[in-house]
Every structure is written in C-alpha cells, then in structure tokens.
Design goal:
The protein has 396 residues and is α/β, with parallel strands linked by helices. It is built from 16 helices and 9 strands.
C-alpha cells in the first residue's frame, strides 16, 4: 500500500500565508494527512488477518490537539470493532508528532531524504516526497536560531575552537566553506557546544567575530583556549579575552609534525614524541624534546623548529594538561559530523548544512554523561594557577 501525501495542498497553504505551526497552520494539515495515511495502513494490515468476516466500516471523527494546533482526525473503523490503532489510541486526544519525530530522528542520524522516505514507508506504509520531508526538517531552523543566541556561562575553564570544511552551493556554484565549532567545558565539568558559525574560509579575522559573539552572549572570561596553529589566532583571542592563555591543540601539533616524517619512521617517532607531551613537568618535557632532536633533528629540522616556536603554548600541570591533550572533545565532535555528512558530498545551501550539524550536536551532547577524570583536582589546580579568576564562580 502506498498513500501519497498532498504536498501540493501543503505548498498552497504556505503560499496562502499560513504559518508552519500554530492553530490551523500548514504543518497541522500535514500531520493530519500523515496520521490518517498511517491509520489507513494500520487498518489494511489488521483486515488481512480476517478478510472473510471483517470489513471496513467508515470513520469516526475526533478532535486532536498537537503542538502545531488542533485538527479533525478521521479514524477508520471495522465491522467487528476489533481494530485497535497503534499510532493514535482509541482514547487519545493529543499528539506529540510521532511521524514528524521519526523523520527528525532519522535525519539526525545522517539519513538522506530518500532514505527517510523509504524508512517511513516501510514503517507506516506511507509514501511522500522529499519536499514534505524538507518541510518537516525545516522545523529545526527556528530551534537553531534560538539556540544560537542563548545566554552562556560567565566563565569557562576550557574552550576548544576548530573548523571543519564543507562544499556548499552559492550563486550557482559549489564553494568550500569553513564551519566553525566552539566547545566549552564549564566549571561543573559539563561539556557544551557554545556556537556554530559558517564562513567562506577559516581565518583569524572571522574567529574575532566568533569570539565577540561569545562575549555578547555573556562570556566574561576563558581561562584556556585550545586552538590549532592558525596564524593570528592567539592575537584574535586575546583582543577579546586579554587574560586567556592560548594552548595549541596537541592533536593538531602532532598531526602537523608527522606530516614531515617519512612513512617508515612515523610509528617510532610518534612513540618517542609521547615522552615530550606526556611529561609531568615543562622542564622534563624540554629534556625529552632535546633528546628527540638529538636523534631526529638533522633529518627533520622543520619539526623541531615548529615545536620550539610554539613551546610557550604547550604547557600546564599534568591534570590540566590531560583535559587539553587526552580529552580533545572537539575532535570527537568533528568525527561525528563527518559520519553524518560522509554520504552528502555537498550541500545545496547554508541552511541545509547548519540544520544537519545542529541535530548532530544534539545527538553528541546526549553522550556527554561521563565526568572529566579527576575534575575536582583539575579545577583546584586551575583556581591556583589562575588565582582569583574562579573565586566568584566557585563561591570562594
């Protein structure tokens, strides 16, 4: 059974000026159609079990309430009265948008519109177009806009800043755009994505706009900002948050170093490099770097030039360092983004990319339930290292 949803009427309602949500809104009309289509599929399935003695017997009508408004729902009946709908129970008078929620959950897992359409048809026996699915997923946009301006914490002990690149269509051609991710660790050790930003390229000038936005939304102080080696990045951060100490992302530093190491030596070099960035003290790390350079410096001088030029941005006590080095949360977020988008290739507009990644963030944040290891010790070290800057937040 394949019931087509009246997408044309839905589009007419939008063009006629009806809102997406609210009483008598266009989305209410769509939910009514989706629900009645699913009910029709349900009763057809029910009747196949008793074709000889049971038949359809018209409809009963009841008023359903949903978050998008009220509507009259036609519920099919059978002669024997044995039909018990699953999607809308007999005494149910309100809906939470089951099909809509199903669409959004499938979308949040990175499924294409075609895959979502097929999954809904397999589950409910309902067939409808990509335009309908797009209309439902567009419900994410106002949620995204509201989220982007929400107030933030006054102080963040750690903030990670990084960018990931995607192809997006603009003015009829596909161009590469930088998608900026800002992730903070709060004083209570909760992880939080602070913002999503999209620009044509990654640069310190745009990062300055990002940091200004964070400040406008309530951030007064960042203790440590972990960033990649982008030129001008530390200066951009300190122009907005002058007391923030900039920590180069160790993952980026290691990755950049290994780019210049011959493939035959990469495994051994990476093993020996751990002695540098996992050292207990800065002095010990310096000794290990000297040893490493003595062994490999003549062959790969550019690697050691990089480490020594950035040495002041690679520091801190062990427990603080562990949060930065071994809990590079933003890398795991970007891995999840790549999983969501790996089959997409390119995006037709900014909105299609942003709403998908926003849903990806909602999924990622659900998994952030484990506390940061030894957080109480870490926050104690931070309060000493950054004397006075956590007193108000910690009620000291």
């Amino acid at each position: 059974m394949n019931i087509e949803i009246d997408v044309e009427q839905f589009a007419k309602n939008i063009k006629a000026g009806k809102s997406i949500g609210g009483k008598d809104g266009a989305l209410s009309f769509l939910i009514k159609q989706l629900t009645e289509a699913a009910l029709a599929a349900e009763i057809d399935s029910h009747l196949t079990q008793d074709l000889d003695k049971n038949r359809k017997n018209g409809y009963s009508t009841k008023t359903m309430k949903s978050e998008h408004g009220s509507f009259e729902l036609d519920v099919p009946r059978d002669r024997n009265g044995s039909f018990e709908p699953e999607i809308v129970k007999k005494n149910q008078t309100s809906m939470t948008g089951e099909i809509e929620d199903k669409i959004l959950s499938l979308y949040a897992l990175g499924n294409s519109y075609s895959q979502i359409s097929q999954a809904i048809e397999d589950f409910y026996g309902v067939g409808f177009s990509k335009a309908t699915i797009s209309a439902v997923t567009d419900k994410i946009i106002p949620m995204l806009q509201e989220w982007k301006i929400k107030p933030l914490e006054e102080v963040y002990p750690f903030v990670f800043l990084d960018a990931i690149h995607y192809k997006v269509k603009e003015d009829g051609k596909y161009i590469s755009k930088a998608f900026y991710t800002v992730l903070g660790v709060r004083v209570d050790d909760k992880k939080e994505i602070l913002g999503l930003y999209l620009n044509e390229s990654e640069g310190a000038k745009f990062w300055l706009q990002v940091l200004t936005d964070l400040q406008n939304r309530g951030v007064q102080d960042i203790l440590i900002a972990s960033v990649d080696g982008l030129k001008g990045f530390p200066e951009a951060i300190n122009s907005v948050f002058p007391n923030t100490e900039v920590q180069l992302c160790i993952v980026h530093q290691i990755r950049n170093s290994l780019r210049f190491i011959g493939s035959a030596n990469q495994k051994q070099f990476a093993k020996e490099l751990k002695l540098v960035y996992q050292a207990f003290t800065k002095e010990e790390a310096q000794i290990e770097l000297d040893k490493l350079e003595e062994r490999w410096g003549k062959k790969y001088p550019i690697v050691f030039t990089s480490w020594r030029n950035k040495w002041e941005n690679l520091k801190y006590p062990e427990d603080i360092r562990k949060v930065i080095y071994t809990t590079n949360i933003i890398e795991s977020v970007h891995r999840q983004f790549r999983t969501l988008t790996k089959t997409k290739g390119a995006f037709p507009n900014d909105s299609s990319l942003l709403k998908l990644l926003f849903m990806g963030i909602q999924n990622a944040s659900k998994k952030w339930t484990m506390p940061v290891i030894n957080w109480s010790l870490t926050i104690s070290q931070l309060s000493i290292y950054f004397e006075g800057r956590l007193d108000k937040t910690l009620n000291l």
